[in-house]
Amino acid sequence: MARIRPARTFRNISSQAWARYSQKKPRKNYIRALPHTSLLVFKMGTENKNYDLQLKLDVQEPIQLRSNSLEAARQIANRYLENNIPGNFLLRVLVYPHIVIREHKMASGAGADRISQGMNNAFGKPTGIAARLRKGQSVFMIATTKQNMPHAKEAFRRAASKLSGHYKTNSA
Question: Taking the domain 34-100+125-172, which CATH number applies?
Answer without folding.
Answer: 3.90.1170.10
